[in-house]
Here is the input.
Amino acid sequence: MSKRDRLSGNEAVSVAMRQINPDVVAAFPITPSTEVPQYFASFVANGMVDTEFVPVESEHSAMSACIGAQAAGARTMTATSANGLALMWEMLYIAASSKLPITLAAVNRALSGPININNDHSDTMGARDSGWIQIYGENNQEAYDNFIQAVRIGEHPDVMLPVMDCYDGFITSHAVENIELLDDDAVKKFVGEYNPGESLLNRKNPISVGPLDTVTHYFEHKRIQAEAMKNAKQVILDVAEEFEKLTGRKYGLFEEYMMDDAEVAIVIINSTAGTAKETIKGLRAKGIKAGLIKIRVFRPFPVEEIAKALSKVKAVAIMDKCDGFNAAGGPLFNEVTSALYGRADGIKAINYIYGLGGRDVSVQDIATVYDRLLDIVNTGNIGEVYNYLGVRE
Amino acid sequence: MMETIFERPKALADVPFHYCPGCTHGIVHRLIAEVIDELGIEGDTIGVAPVGCAVFAYNYFNCDMQEAAHGRAPAVATGIKRANPENIIFTYQGDGDLAAIGTAETVHAATRSENITIIFLNNAIYGMTGGQMAPTSLVGQVTQTTPYGRKVEMQGYPIRMSEMLATLEGSSFIKRCSVDSIKNINDTRASIKKAFQCQIDKKGFSMVEVLSTCPTNWGLSPAESMDWLRDNMMPYYPLGVYKDVTGGDR
Here is the structure.
């Protein structure tokens, strides 16, 4: 059973949090994620959940409190954006390396500086190598669905890693859309009880979390962490399959849109995928074989699957809502081209940096990217690889 | 010939404030600008803007301004002052910035007796993010994250920054003021002037805490907010000088 409602992305995620009824939420407000803990605080005050809610004094403390709580055996959650995530940086790595499956609503916002409150992906892209699983969602429904699945993915015994549920600030977090919510009981049953194999406060099995790990063991521990991230891919697919049985909504590592016969394609993350789908509809009406891949799972990165999905296109544009400042391209571009290397060689790939700091991207803007791809296919000339969309030069 | 008896301070930019109606940020901005004018230090003064409602402070002062990351203004000010010891450096911070995320920077700037001036607006709430509980929110105060009021057993006690910083050997001038009345506004101006003078005289760390209102997030009219400040904030945050060693050899 499910219920139709109209909610903002933040509201939807706070409802998911209420339905999950975590043991501890520790958070500090930052635009545009503030509403998640704020709505949740009202659920706590109204006695709708049993959660210890801790309004800490900074994100540094929020993630530290989450680490302490999760290590103590509690199911723990928080939410943040941009500089808040950056202030958590030190602890992000500690949470991941300590195998603590904390769930974080990461509401994408441009990272300072210059200071900006609007959407791009520089915050979570910066945290891409922190050891967290990263799942991205195009709209409110996906933000809600991914948040519920994140709990199961992170807590799986083969994984035990923290998970970020990433969705676009304002565009997704604040826009109200129709959404299908699961029944409270269905969510509770889906996520189940959190029973970590080991935790603090277990008198029968005392442990230490996060002790000094020198040359003798540090490397092996990082290796175990890397293996857990590899394991996550299958777990993500298994959880998605179970979720589909419950909801009818299908999730994978990425979404393929009009890719069956596509000759030109773009690879993109989050809400702009919706814009690009509109562009594709227009192009298809003109007989142009355009397609799209929308990344859902960025960590672990679906290397083989992406290469296979792109293997039949003639030219691809990888769209980054975050610059890489490596003088070569954005982070998604680097990941996708490295996935193609040796698996699908010869595909002409270009990169576009778009939408930084909330710069609007229209259906027509995306159309210019497809124009460029068609030109590459027709002329064989790839031209400039590292490009910008919609910036004043 | 007409005599000018009232004009905009030169240190205050001729632009409209973005602050909500009834908010006291505007009064305090003006007082700082008046003091800068009176001391004739506009060309020598560098301000550090916070994150919070006053994030746009750099739009309002006609001196050089630097934007700091959330809570880091005293550390940024430390850097500016150490590089330019002859300049006058002030930070302008709210309670979310100074008493929450930036508590460590505040305490350690004071304990090092950094020769800077902090203007601290305490309105007992996080204003910019929409009215969540601050460390300075009063017991029982209704906020977005404490909808039935702040409870000591859940959220602890409000923090008194002036009293705490006054205990540090490094602080030189610490005073809590208010802008709820003409008398207190005048006293706040005199206190800000004294804090800047403390810095000019190289006496070390100075802070003026100003009890302020947030009608929007308190859910009160501007006039009711002033009453709420007097009835609720002043008993817990008494006005007065908490530290003054500016007369000594420091």
